Amino acid sequence: MSKRSVLSTLRLSVPALALGLSLTACADLGQPTVSAELKDAGGKVVGQATFRPEVIGTRASIEVSGLTPGQHALHIHENPKCEPGPDAKGKVIPFGAAGGHFDPGASKNHDHPTTTNDKGHGGDLPMIEVGDDGKGKLNFDTNRVKMSGPTSVLGRSIVIHEGADDYQTDPAGNSGGRVACGVFVAIN
User: Fold this and answer.
1) Is 75 a catalytic residue?
2) Same-domain pairing of 167 and 108
């Protein structure tokens, strides 16, 4: 193939690739925005979690208040329930009905939020830092979950734990009890 043929092929391929990427991004933007009202075990609203589609993937925004200062583990859980229920050992705990971590890649492994879904739970999220005033805010982008399809958070719950996540101990990163929970619903 001549240099001229290679250059012509490249010129045709780059716009086609760009068009393909932009069409994929537009398709992702057709997903709904989802939100979960976070409540403590007494039913008091302590925060809000919102996940919305962006060209780069999913943009997550979480705000909380009334929690103890420090880092708190944050996970998407399998079931859309925030009632008491059994943990993995059968003991009834607050928000136990939320079930285990959302694991769309069937990894069966708790891991860091940047790990791919086949290596770690898709529901393993960054930690939220709560200040001395009891308030915390977290914004992050992810490609591990979406609002539709097999990695959808819609119809699942989000849980905040009492302590930090070590991102290695199964099943929940040694993060302690569940202190807040919300169920994702579409808001548009």
Assistant:
1) yes
2) yes
Q: Which of 75, 103, 156, 165 is catalytic?
A: 75
Does 161 qualify as catalytic in the annotation?
A: yes
Domain, as residue range, for 12: 1-30
Active site residue 124: yes
CATH code where residue 92 lies: 2.60.40.200
Known catalytic membership, residue 112: no
Q: Which residues contact 16 (CB under 8 A, 6 or more apart)?
A: none
What is the amino acid identity at position 84?
Answer: P
Specify whether 16 is located in the same domain as 68. no
133 is catalytic: no
**Structural domains counted in the chain:** 2
Q: Which of 28, 40, 103, 124 is flagged as catalytic?
A: 124
Q: How many helices (H) and strands (E) does the chain have?
A: 1, 12
Residue 46: burial class (beta carbons within 10 Å; 0-12, 13-18, 19+):
buried
Whether 72 is catalytic: no
Q: What is the pTM of this model?
A: 0.81
Q: Is 144 a catalytic residue?
A: no
46/160 Cα distance (integer angstroms): 11
pLDDT per residue over 23-65, tens digit each? Answer: 334 445 678 999 999 999 999 999 999 999 998 889 999 999 9
Q: Which of 28, 40, 103, 110 is catalytic?
A: 110
Identified catalytic residue from 72, 101, 144, 156: 101
Residues 48 and 138 in one domain: yes
